[in-house]
Amino acid sequence: METLSFVFPAGEPAKARALVGCVGSGDLEALLEPGEKGSLKIQVVTSVNGSAPRWQQLFERMFEEQRPPALNIDIHDFGATPGVVRLRLEQGLEEIGHEQ
């Protein structure tokens, strides 16, 4: 198990919370909660050791073209593919009312 932390620029704090996905065979769970203005903080607990560069690239692609709301995101990963990660994060952002 490995714990990774990432920080990205963000806008105003989100106004809602969301819990998406479930930890299980090849999936992940993501908890999105309002964060501090200007900061998107992501913590990933993953079963895949040495995967930090993959996570970094995924988050950079997702958040370089948009200004996400300020959030604290906790991800519990059980070997999810990048496509599943992105799907769950987009699902969570939609639930809190942030349009992509």
From TrEMBL:
Any idea which residues bear O-(phosphoribosyl dephospho-coenzyme A)serine here?
25
Give compartment(s): Cytoplasm
Domain of life of the organism in this record? Bacteria
The entry lists its GO molecular-function terms as: acyl carrier activity
Kindly provide the PTM information from the record.
Covalently binds the prosthetic group of malonate decarboxylase.
What GO cellular-component annotations does this UniProt entry give?
cytoplasm
Annotated keywords: Cytoplasm, Phosphoprotein
Tagged with keyword Cytoplasm: yes
Instruction: Reply yes or no: does the keyword Cytoplasm apply.
Output: yes
Primary localization:
cytoplasm
Give the NCBIfam families listed for this entry.
Answer: malonate_delta (TIGR03130), PRK01220.1 (NF002293)
Q: Describe its function.
A: Subunit of malonate decarboxylase, it is an acyl carrier protein to which acetyl and malonyl thioester residues are bound via a 2'-(5''-phosphoribosyl)-3'-dephospho-CoA prosthetic group and turn over during the catalytic mechanism.
Q: Which family does it belong to?
A: Belongs to the MdcC family.
Protein name (Swiss-Prot/TrEMBL): Malonate decarboxylase acyl carrier protein
Organism the protein comes from: Stutzerimonas kirkiae
Q: Which gene encodes it?
A: mdcC
